[in-house]
Write a structure and sequence with these properties.
Layout lengths: L2 E7 L4 H4 L13 H14 L6 E4 L3 H11 L7 E3 L16 H7 L1 H4 L17 H18 L4 E6 L1 H12 L16 E6 L6 E7 L5
Parallel strand pairs: 1-4, 2-3, 2-4
Antiparallel strand pairs: 1-5, 5-6
Helix pairs in contact: 2-3, 6-7
Length: 204
């Protein structure tokens, strides 16, 4: 049996608006982020979601909780493998501040390269590996279901790369906006099908 994955990035936070690296710093949704989450919840009202998984970080979990209000029979479970990439010493900094303090790392967005070691943080390849670990477990346990995963930009792109066999360094070439919707169907046999990527029409 196939599994349908509904991948949702969390709503907006204050640090998003300030262009700060959030990583695993536990920043809550701002008022607009709550509004965005309610809009994606309305968009998915009636969609047959049977299971929710979320990052435990506040911005993702609150988004998941709001979306799940329309799917009260679907269990919601948090999973540490869905946390955002740790950006270590860069968390809380704006991109301009990162460029000033770590000019070599900021050159050509080297943090997007799989083996770039962010000071005190994770390599992209490490996020990718935990994304693979989570997905293998999920696909094994949730066959035949439609499953929503509410998480963060980097880990969602890693999941997309794994399922669709995209080069990992292609992550830098497309954006996932706040509360964007991506849908992938994974059949029991054959290649996964990317149905929707970065859908944001619900934001108006």
């Amino acid at each position: 049996m196939s599994i349908t994955l509904v991948l949702i990035r969390h709503g907006e936070t204050k640090w998003n608006t300030e262009h700060r690296m959030q990583g695993q710093t536990d920043i809550p949704l701002n008022a607009n982020g709550v509004k965005q989450a309610k809009r994606i919840a309305k968009q998915l009202n009636g969609y047959p979601i049977q299971r929710f998984y979320s990052s435990p970080l506040k911005r993702a979990y609150r988004t998941a909780h709001i979306v799940r209000a329309h799917h009260s029979d679907a269990p919601l479970t948090t999973h540490d493998d869905l946390k955002e990439r740790s950006f270590g010493d860069c968390e809380g900094m704006t991109y301009d501040e990162i460029t000033h303090r770590f000019p070599v790392m900021a050159f050509d967005r080297s943090w997007d390269h799989p083996y770039c070691q962010i000071p005190g943080g994770e390599r992209l390849i490490d996020v990718y590996r935990r994304g693979i670990r989570f997905m293998r477990e999920l696909i094994e346990n949730e066959r035949g279901k439609t499953v929503a995963i509410v998480a963060h930009g980097v880990i969602i792109r890693c999941i997309i790369s794994y399922l669709m066999r995209f080069p990992l360094n292609a992550n830098m070439f497309y954006e996932l906006k706040n509360t964007s919707l991506t849908v992938i169907r994974v059949p029991r046999l054959g290649a996964p099908e990317l149905h929707v990527l970065n859908h944001t029409l619900h934001l108006g």
